[in-house]
Amino acid sequence: MTAVETKPARGAPPPLKHDEAASGRASRPRGKRRLGPGKSIPLGYLIGPLLLLGVWIWGSAQGWIDPRILTAPWTVVETAWDLWESGRLGPDLLVSARRFALGLTFGVLAGLVLAIVSGLSRWGEAVVDGPVQIKRSIPNLALLPLLLLWFGIDERMKIITIALGVLIPIYIHTHNGLRSIDGRYAELAETLRLNHAAFLGRVVLPGALPGFFLGMRFAVTSSWLSLVVVEQVNATSGIGYMMLLAGTYGQTDIIIVGLVLYALLGLVSDTVVRIVQRRVLSWRRTLED
Amino acid sequence: MSLIRHAVAAEDAARVPGAVVLTDVVKRYGRGPGAVTALDGVSLNVAPGSFTCLVGASGCGKSTLLSLVAGLDELSAGSIDNVERPVAMMFQESALFPWLTVSGNVELALRVKGVGRAERRQRAAELLDTVRLNGFAHKRPHELSGGMRQRVALARALAQDASVLLMDEPFGALDAMTRDILHDELERIWRERELTVLFVTHNVREAVRLGDRVVLLSSRPGRVLNVYDVGLDRPRRIDSAPVAGLAAEITDALREEVSRHAG
């Protein structure tokens, strides 16, 4: 009985016409393209960054890029190795990574809680939404003097600054995702007599996940950006401090090492978010797949 | 059988589980001169274990009526008595949570009632078996055809274990063949479980194929125009002559009603 309803599997080719089958071509006429972006390219996300790296290597080797303006890639690798060998890079990297992770964690938690409060209750929205929008329009750099006064110059201040930057995209996108949940799902939840906890856990949170992950991608990058700011304004350790110090001595190669590290860390964390996103949101059918 | 059922007085019927009695139900939206009256004095006795179909032109308030019985919306006047709340409800679309598996969707209805995990799984498997979907427990809704999705929605409605099942054009988006098969399934399940079904559709033949009674509603405001007793033997076929004959009669009345509003 069920067989009657079973659709052909998605992506299964339509039956081949005789002449096409003979020539081994796909059944779609040549020249006719699909409107979607097509099949995904394995490791395709690496192509852009690798192209950029290629231009850098090629340009430096050809002598088009003056090493005083932009250090050659091999010098950067050498410098990074020297820094690592001499024990200067490792501890700084560790300190930066810790700040990043803590700031991100607290920021995501705060952003999530605020988004849920403001998304599920009109009163919550009335209280929470305005201040978040205000914070959004104030750059972290402008807040820094105040944060310094309030929280001192230690780790606490740095983590709070990062968290403040992170919670904004998490809040905006989760809130938006939550409010875009199909109203029918809420109606359905009502007919199923779901209680608040079940509604939150089974309907609201999964429904808001696409928004949350978009926010997460902004949040991860924002976390690295804030890190640069706090480490360059007032710090005695971390990658940013290392770059600041190098700047005063005119050590371009060390600055580039710092920049490359930031770039790598940013790319890696964005990739991690995207991989997790794809696995968690496997129930969606979008152009992405 | 159905004659005896209908003879039961409203007061008595309301005390039997599965009965739904609507008395002078009025539903208005908005206030003042811009107010719209969706339903105006609808009275209806739905006997326990009966299959009642509501038909009418679009905008006649059929779906509003179901929302009111389900308690999703509030009455403006009148009363609805049904001994057993909650009722189970089934929609046309967006009826499954896409992030849950087939089994998860069915289990959700059981989780609310505090059924333990192992038993939930077991009962969900049985219900999926009832709607002939065994083997699909771990699929996601987007991997299923429209007909299979509605089977899951039906299984979930059954999981609520309510004696009243409200269906809002549940097969409206399906092709004729699939719909035909699901009519047989629904009829079988309705009889096995002795459910009271209130079924909204704009498809008059579907109403005659399934219903003990077909209630014809007028448009804007919605009132009961006529109630047809479908005295045809079951199982029926949607393309049989008696079904088509009664459907034609109801369709004529419906067309007259629609053209009166258009003119």
TrEMBL record, chain A:
This is ABC transporter permease. GO terms for cellular component: plasma membrane. Residues 1-35 are annotated as: Disordered. It is found in: Cell membrane. Residues 89-273 form the ABC transmembrane type-1 domain. Signal peptide: none annotated. The chain crosses the membrane at residues 40-58, 100-117, 137-153, 159-178, 199-220, 254-276. The keyword Chaperone does not apply. It is a multi-pass membrane protein. Belongs to the binding-protein-dependent transport system permease family. SUPFAM superfamilies: MetI-like (SSF161098). One of its GO terms (biological process) is alkanesulfonate transmembrane transport. Pfam families: BPD_transp_1 (PF00528). Keywords: Cell membrane, Membrane, Transmembrane, Transmembrane helix, Transport.
From TrEMBL, chain B:
Pfam families: ABC_tran. Residues 20-244 form the ABC transporter domain. The keyword ATP-binding applies. InterPro entries: AAA+_ATPase (IPR003593), ABC_transporter-like_ATP-bd (IPR003439), ABC_transporter-like_CS (IPR017871), ABC_transporter_ATP-bind (IPR050166), P-loop_NTPase (IPR027417). SMART domains: AAA (SM00382). One of its GO terms (molecular function) is ATP binding. Keywords: ATP-binding, Nucleotide-binding, Transport. Gene3D superfamilies: P-loop containing nucleotide triphosphate hydrolases. The keyword ATP-binding applies. This is ABC transporter ATP-binding protein. It comes from Glycomyces algeriensis.
